[in-house]
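=== Structure Prediction Worksheet ===
Name of assembly: unnamed complex
Input type: mixed (protein and possibly other molecules)
Chain count: three
Listed entries:
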Amino acid sequence: MNVVNSPTEEIRARIEADSSARVVVTLYWASALFWLTFATLAGLISSIKLHSPDFLNYEWLTFGRIRPVHWDTAIYGFGGLAASGTLLWLQARLCQVKLPFRGPLIIGGILYNLGMVLGVIAVLAGYSTGVETLEFPVWAMTFLVLPFVVIVIANFTMYARKKTQHTYVSQWYLMAVTVWFPVLVLSAEACINFGAVDGVAQAIANWWYGHNVVGLFATPTGIAAAYYLIPKVIGKPIHSYHLSLVGFWTNAIFYNWAGTHHLTGGPLPAWTITVGVVGSMMMFIPVITIGINHHMTMLGSFHLLKTSPTLRFAVMGSMMYTVASFQGSLEALRTHQEVTHFTHYTIGHVHLGMYGFFAPLMFAMMYYAMPRLMRQEWSSARLIRIHFWCTLVGTALYGGAMCFAGVKQGLMMNDPAIPFLKVVEFTIPFLQLRTLAGLILLSGTMAFLINFGRMMARHKLTFADPTLFTSERNWDALLEEEQKV
Amino acid sequence: MGRTLFLALGIFLTIACSVTGLVILPNWQFQGLKPVTKKDGVKYPMPYFGDNHKGRAEYISHGCIYCHSQQVRMKGYGADIRRGWGTRRSVPRDYIYDYPHQLGTMRTGPDLANIGARQPSRDWHSLHLYDPQITSPGSVMPRFYYLFDEVKQGESPRAGAIKVPDGYPNRGSVVAIVPNERGEQLIAYLKWLNQSFPLPEAQQ
Amino acid sequence: MSDQKNSDPIQMHPDEDSVFRIHTAAMREMEEPRDGISPTPVSYIITCFLYLLCGGFYMGYYGGTWKGDGLAERPIGGPAVVAPPQDPMKLGREIFNSCMQCHQESGLGVPGSYPPLAGSEYVLGDKRRLAAILMNGINGDFVVKGQTYNSKMPSWAMLEDEEIAAVATYVRNTWGNRADTMPIDLVKSVRKEVDGKGEWKSATLAEFAATAPPAAAVPPPGAPKK
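=== Predicted Assembly ===
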């Protein structure tokens, strides 16, 4: 094995990896951002509909159709593409190899987007399968699965060709994603949409899948990004290799089993629920372990949060991972579920996880990698600042409003003396707050889109120094200056 | 390479175990579930047929599941039974003909496991689907007006038309509504939803 | 845009200055992350193991029968607890959740579609007739408070006698209605009387109300009053 150890060699390998990944990863991330905007808009429409039911009340946009479109575009469109881009770039970098199969990967990316468009149209037109998170009909889903085959092969090829001797912890997680995701999708499709299991076993398969698509796809990619970015930006080694090991394997073993807590109180044998509760509660071990590893690495470097956009998003993500996972584990308990199951609390939790933990880590990844891929810096520090604060404030407001409303809603529903319509009436102000939170999140996404768009459009405009929060940059002045030159 | 193989195999094993334990095993445990015969010779549960079968497709197509669950929790766990959403808890046997399942995980609206028993009236369902504000003022459910034909003032009356109440503020010139084909199917499905037969295993 | 920062000792392609310029980001960055070797405290490992044991215990304790029909997480044992009789107004309020869909929380119904209960002669009048309506439901034209309603009310016979009595008492004593309580015994006897009679029409109900109840059904004179 050709071992790289001189700094010059490492930089050469980096530049090679970046150059080779450029088109593919940019394509994946640009489409991810498109779907993020789409998902946020769809979410906003759904949110408005829940307090003003006559808003855009057409058959194609009825709540029961736009709401699954929101989730599917968020998880498959944004999540799937952002995570695939991250996976390819990170693996190329960490293996110090060129990204292989670039042509098929580009075709795959296009097919994936096509599948998303078909899926969205199918659900809006009423051809949803009716299975939560698997709403896309099988023919649309095929377009999402085929590109992933290429991604899996590319990942293993890079791993086989790797020039480093050591396997860094991020690579374990990326490896895990590529093994888990195909198994997950294929088993769930076989069980539910091809009818391999019957009756309530479908519900178990549904939530085994629904929980795992977050837990075994989004989460490991997010953790891999955090494990890479935090030590990378602050220039310190990750706290402890042993904790990485414990965290990875306990996460791999327990997360799989947690899904059935979504069916607590449902028509299922007690043991299936109990297993889900234990799986969720045992998640405290990996969450605390990974938390110690991330936060202890950060210890002493918090002043860098003032300057580095990447680090700020990455730390927000890793902290929210701890918070959202604690919340998720406790939520699985039967006593907790008696109140919060069937309420907006769950929706609040999902957003804390997806928009508080996963999305910021993907943003951090893009903020870090895009200047390297495109060979130019971000045009505006102010837009990054807007993006960050909108993400943080929007998520906090969303999570806070929904979780509080959810608990109260659950308590009210469990009191039969309160008429159901009174419960609905109680939630409305919080649903309006959620719309506000959605608007804030959308503004943040827009700021990011502008920055991203400028990078794509003004390819020649380069800066000598990185864009930090402390950088003062005036886009228009620079444009003029550039034109003079 | 040995370590890589170990890593990949270990990862595969984790998911293989969970799909076996959480999906295949319970499915195997449910294989013995058969319908029971009631005193009057009718089987419970019965497969969906005709209009209620097509209505189920409408239910799925309009995404009712995102606001309505179809499962009653046991006595003493939540207030499902005390709210009148059912007379007993739901059990696996209730769902043996459900494909795909529509258990749901959200109650922005009430549970519908027994809606056919709680509200067997075609008129009520029509008015409620046409505009929920008629029967449930303050509801956040959308109007499913496209499942109905409207009978305007001065038009000849139609068979099966349902009178729109006089006090309804958005009435305009609509005097009555008639569910169209899809509307009738959806209502047939809702009226079919009924878990009131006391299955023995529901006593746990 | 000067490239002075990049005149590092690293020599990629010495002739080509632009290479430095376009790769500034890749060159300034820190080295690839490494693993640290901070030791894991033994107490942490022990705590994890103890926690795992707790998980195992929970699984054993709440696993039910581990069979497909083991729905209860704990086997139900011991003598059945007999629920103490409930305040009919409180229980009635709960049962009324099911009635609200048509008669509304306000008891005013939906004008033109569903009759009001507040001030309704069917609610405040003959208790036997009220119990009969709850038991079998109605279908067809009914005149309530001078208004004609054509609607269908389902049968509520699946409720317990106590529950039917409670909801009747509730509607007779809410929204300004004042009337005596519905005795459970009366509900019990009406259940037997109306069995098989089907949904009431205006006429059949009037006929039923006019016929004298069987002697046993008359509540004793000292029936509790509210």
